[in-house]
Design brief:
single chain; 146 residues; mainly alpha; two-stranded antiparallel ribbon; 5 helices
């Protein structure tokens, strides 16, 4: 993985998480309690709890979470692999475990999403240093100063 994409590396992310969380045994992803700290009891994070935290993060940056779910990560990953890494559709389907027969076109749901932002350059999608933007409700333009 190129150095410019180091923040996307799952191995680095898990290594950083283990270092920060000091977890040495049991569940790697534990339930998060109030104050963004791990729960005292050794309980796993459920998909429902993850979704709640994900929605809270979206609210923190001013994004309406109603159209986002855990499958949003599938969409982002597929779009990144297809547009930026130039993977062919068949390879993406094989990687994601989807049918390569293209009979139900599941891959299309992940490549073309109703909440895509065609006004944002693709090279900015995974930029960890970008400032959040807010769209003007009147003209639809984005700016970083609102």
């Amino acid at each position: 993985m190129p150095a410019s994409e180091a923040h996307l590396c799952p191995v680095r992310a898990i290594t950083d998480w283990i270092g920060a969380s000091k977890i040495t045994t049991s569940y790697l992803f534990r339930k998060i309690a109030s104050g963004d700290r791990m729960a005292e009891a050794n309980q796993p994070m459920t998909s429902e709890h993850f979704l709640e935290l994900f929605h809270n993060n979206l609210l923190d940056i001013g994004v309406d979470p109603s159209s986002y779910g855990t499958h949003s990560f599938h969409c982002g990953g597929c779009q990144y692999l297809h547009i930026d890494c130039h993977w062919p559709l068949r390879r993406i389907c094989e990687w994601g475990g989807w049918s390569t027969e293209f009979t139900n076109m599941t891959i299309v749901k992940y490549l073309i999403s109703h909440n895509n932002d065609p006004t944002k350059p693709h090279e900015q999608f995974f930029n960890p240093d970008q400032r959040p933007t807010v769209k003007c409700p009147h003209c639809g333009r984005s700016c970083t100063c609102t």
